[in-house]
Design brief:
single chain; alpha/beta; OB fold (Dihydrolipoamide Acetyltransferase, E2P); Transcription Regulator spoIIAA; 5 domains; 5-stranded mixed β-barrel
Length: 506
């Protein structure tokens, strides 16, 4: 067993239904790709992870997480989160980062005792420096409370709301409350913290909603994260604009069920401010698509039952929205889907996939599949293989069903034996890998637009990036290309990556 400590960097993938997460853990030794089940993690969290290294046949070397502990963030991280939260007027996330990089652990002392030194930082005048210092003095108690709340995984933005409600009683309240949700329920609705720290300067995730109303029988999320609630359109749009201003090129819109964004609010008459024409997920995609500087838009995870025609139309017509859509299947058998409480049939899923392929040019699909759900027979599992054969997914995230205490699935009596689960999993894995190998061949000889993300982990003389369809591409090139979109000719394919070369360098 290995024990590794580091910060959660880019979250590559998160399955809202079962908590399976793929993310990069960053520390002084570099970056580690981690996989495992998490109720909830956010970019910027400090984790101590216990696990073992495994080699995935498709995705390479990974740290399989057996257990983890959320540690109290280090001082510099907490300071940056606080300053960038909006608690101090005139300081955004980017400026907060410059201040902390300049003064490090001395940041608060400098602001309080030598505020004139803030003027050493570009963008801060002497007058603004004095204003910042005055605000910080006035909000000293707030600052201490916000940093204290960081250890609970609460963002600075949300911590300010909590402090404004409870005041100096916040410490006693946090100690006495049995559930974090009880603390967050401060005015009739539960607020969710949003990550401030972003470790990538190219790609960022933006939460658009929290909670879930679907209650899939294998999933614990609705019980631990609460019911579905959407962020205000203005907050989302302004966050994306700020990211674009800071040089980010790709964003991923996050939610447990993104394509139901603002649905609950509309159905129940809950007040929200329509901003830039945003009143649904489809209109949100269109609004984000108009933001200058953003070149790619992704989103996870949608639900097949909520994939409306207007969302399909938005994906088809928005040039920045990637044409790889994650469409969780979970099972290809209608009876099993009913037991899972998924609210669609095998035929409905296949019809949706076919409709999307007809209406969205160059569409590719990825999916999630759970093997061995309680009661699943060998014949019913064959239906899953049938769907995989027909849809020909670009990527498949495969999971062996594991029981979650507190879910209906955990109480089902007809649990599938572990050995049988593994037999089915290996059968599915073989089919998926054969399809990926076949699918990769179609890329050879084509020209692909690739967002360059950095140097290859295995060869620092090579650059790496991803296509619209999320395929990893490695190629030779100057590091000045990092953060840019380049056109590459694909010259060879491998199981978990493609190799390319710049046009004109054949």
């Amino acid at each position: 067993m290995e024990k590794v400590t580091g910060y959660v960097g880019h979250i590559v993938f998160r399955n809202a239904e079962n908590g399976y997460t793929v993310f990069h853990l960053e520390n002084d030794d570099g970056e580690v790709t981690c996989v495992g089940n998490f109720n909830y993690i956010t970019e910027g969290e400090l984790l101590e992870i216990t696990g073992e290294y495994v080699t995935h046949s498709v995705y390479g070397n990974q740290l399989k997480v057996m257990s983890h502990v959320v540690k109290e963030p280090e001082d510099l991280v907490s300071i940056e989160r606080y300053l960038g939260s909006g608690a101090v007027k005139g300081i955004g996330a980017a400026l907060a980062g410059r201040i902390v990089r300049k003064f490090k652990e001395d940041t608060f002392r400098i602001i309080e005792e030598e505020p004139e030194r803030l003027a050493e930082i570009k963008g801060i005048s002497e007058r603004k420096a004095r204003e910042i210092s005055s605000q910080l003095e006035d909000k000293k108690d707030l600052r201490k409370a916000m940093i204290y709340l960081q250890k609970y995984g609460i963002s600075a933005k949300l911590a300010a709301k909590i402090y404004n409600h409870y005041g100096m009683r916040v410490y006693k309240v946090m100690e006495e409350k049995k559930k974090l949700e009880d603390v967050l329920d401060i005015d009739g609705k539960v607020y969710e913290g949003l990550p401030i720290k972003r470790d990538s300067s190219i790609k960022a995730s933006v939460t658009i909603m929290n909670g879930c109303n679907n209650f899939c029988s294998y999933c614990i999320v609705p019980y631990v994260r609460g019911r579905e609630r959407s962020r205000q359109p203005r907050d989302i749009i302004e966050e994306v604009k700020e990211l674009a201003k800071d040089g980010y090129k790709e964003i991923t819109l996050l939610g447990q069920n993104v394509n139901s964004y603002l649905r609950v609010e509309r159905e129940k008459g809950i007040e929200f401010e329509e901003y830039d024409g945003v009143n649904s997920f489809a209109t949100l995609l269109k609004a984000v698509n108009k933001i200058d500087g953003i070149e790619r838009i992704r989103f996870v995870s949608p639900h097949p039952k909520d994939f409306t025609d207007d969302v399909i139309e938005a994906i088809a017509n928005c040039d920045k929205v990637c044409k790889l859509v994650h469409l969780p299947l979970q099972s290809g058998n209608t009876k099993v889907l009913k037991e899972m409480n998924r609210k669609y049939t095998k035929e409905q899923y296949l019809n949706l996939a076919e409709k999307m392929k007809k209406k969205i040019p160059n569409l590719t699909l990825s999916t999630d599949i759970i093997v061995g759900f309680p009661g699943e027979t060998d014949e019913e599992f064959e239906d899953t293989l049938d769907v995989v054969k027909k849809v020909k997914f670009e990527q498949v995230y495969m999971f062996i069903y594991s029981r979650r205490v507190g879910t209906p699935g955990d109480k089902m009596k007809n649990q599938v034996p572990e050995g049988q689960k593994h037999v089915r999993f290996n059968k599915l894995k073989a089919l998926v890998e054969s399809q990926i190998a076949e699918n990769n061949q179609k890329y050879v000889g084509t020209i692909q637009k690739v967002l360059v993300e950095g140097t290859s982990k295995n060869n620092d003389k090579m650059l790496t990036g991803r296509t619209d369809s999320n395929k990893v591409v490695i190629f030779e090139g100057d590091k000045s290309l990092i953060g840019n979109m380049v056109e590459l000719k694909i010259i060879s394919e491998h199981m978990w990556y493609l190799k390319g070369e710049r046009k004109g360098e054949e």
